[in-house]
Amino acid sequence: MAEDGAMVEVWRGDFAESCHAGHAVVCNASGDVIWEWGDPRAVRLPRSSIKMLQALAMVESGAADRLGPEELALACASHQAAPMHVSRVTRWLADLGLGDADLLCGTALPLDRDSRIAMLRADITPTQIHHQCSGK
Question: From CA 68, how far away is CA 74, in angstroms rounded?
Answer without folding.
Answer: 10
